[in-house]
Structures are given as structure tokens and as C-alpha cells.
Specification:
single chain; mainly alpha; 2 strands; 8% strand
Length: 130
Amino acid sequence: ILLDQTKLQINRLVKLAKDTDDLDEITRELRDLKIQESESSIQIKQLKAQRDREMPHITPEALALVFDAWRDQIDNAYQTGDILNAKRLLAQFVKRIDLGRSTAIIHYTHPLEIPAEHAALMCAHSKDEP
């Protein structure tokens, strides 16, 4: 947002420079804004790089372990009749479930891009189900 505002100010100053004769002041302001734009761009790149370094990489196998644990907790809540707990567990990562006659579409709160070769690891069914 700050970068966009700086660009707007630069454009405003360029337009103002064309309409007035006070080029010295406008040139100074324009130079300051270009420096601010450059510093903001550098800061954005640094923050993105820091975010990328700090964001952990989770392997598909590790994610599958998490899904297995969730599946077991949900199954246990369902088997014991604790529907409220099952609903609470599902609400952590399922936004909505659309049911059709023979299909179900699950809308997740945190979509995952799972490569096709790992799709079986993320299957919602337990390992012994077809």
C-alpha cells in the first residue's frame, strides 16, 4: 500500500511539474519520493525473503500424519457419539460440504496444493477403507 501511495504521489508531482513553473521544489519532492519508493521496494523484498526463510516446509508425509491424527480424532468422536466434538474438529479445516446424490465436494478453509503423486496420502478415508 505504501509503495502504491508513493507511486501516486510521484505521478501527481510529475503532473504538477508540467502545470507550474516551480520546478526546483517539485524536483526535490520527486527525488525524495523516488528514494522512498526504492527503499519501500527493498523493504518489501527483504520481508518476503524473511517470510520465505521462516515459513516451514512440510513434507507430504508429515502432512499425512497430521491428517491421520485428525481422521482418528474425528472417527473417535463419531464412534462415541460426540457429534459436537466431531463438528468442532471438522470446522478447523472444512468450510463447507456440498452433498450430491453420489458425490461430496469439500471446501477447505486452508486449500492445499497437493501434487497428484501424493493425493493418496491425503485421502480423507482411513487406510483400510476402499
